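__Protein archive entry__

___
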Amino acid sequence: MIPAARRAGPGADRRGAGHASCHHGEILQGVFLDAGGRRCAGLVTLPMTGPGSRAEFTRRPGTPPEQLTVRPGDRTKAARAAVLAVEECARRRREAPCGGVLRISGDIPVGLGMGSSTSDVIAVVRAVADSYGVLLSSDAVARLAVRAELACDPLMLDARPVLFAQREGRVLEVLGRRLPPLVVVGCALGGGAPVDTLALPARVHDDADVRAFERLRTLLRRAVATGDAALLGEVATASARRGQQVLRHPEFDTLTDIARRLGAVGVQIAHSGAVAGLLLDPAAPGLRRRVRSCVRALESNGIAATRTFTTFPTSPTSAASLPSPASPPSPTFPTTKEFPSGPAHRGGHRPTGPDTPRRPAHLPAL
């Protein structure tokens, strides 16, 4: 595909487009040791395709770089990303930085810990790069994203499971080619209210914490290498339990009890939001019944069920075997299959408000 900037004729506006997906919170998050033995914060996200951010950037050569129009006008992190990306791309093209018009849209539920702000930022960086006809590496995109929002999720990478240093924008370890097959019954804790991570108490991790996180890292590496869904569920649950020391979700015990009673291999909870999931092994018998039971159990306990999806590609035939209480299955996606089962994920609900705070997703509980 020829970048938009190269298709434009002489004197035409240089227009580029970019897109970025979201994730479904973390499988593992903590403090780890890098290759040099230095401590650094890291995370492994649960990838999910479908919802995403879209950006369109039209640059205006000859205008000052501070002459930047952003719509919606209060996406401050995305605006910073645009300025930084223009500087980077103009330098590579040996041109003077210029201003332009940036438009952002998306359908990622906000405030749930699904990477909505990072998705905005990455879509903007890709749109600016497209307008210049520049191909940025994932490392370059990650560096710009960290500079724009101080910490970012690894949404600029492919679906391979990686341990990612979110405050440094670098991969600490590629854990393998793909996650074990899982079916995730998604939900939102706390009625979908946004979690203000900056207001949470800062936790200082000691040597014992780091050793515990490194053990979980080893177990997750083994789970990925062997395709062991049960072992991955143990890691995700242990990580969620450690995160509970700060997040203190009142529904945590209920969620883990539902997982135990209905045969889920574990639970995962976003460490910077309210999105959560019951993890099921698709190879275990009675999958359709277990998914339905999980959805009913969540709803009966006042926890809004949102979306059921998988970590593996599915055919239309196999997709039909999974229940979708609220709507029919969506089309097949490259890396995950999604089955919307609640208003929180039907699209069109994302507000055009500022990066912080944004309105919570419109969930049944609200």
Q: What stands out?
A: The CA atoms of residues 287 and 351 lie 35 Å apart. DSSP finds nine helices and eleven strands in the chain.
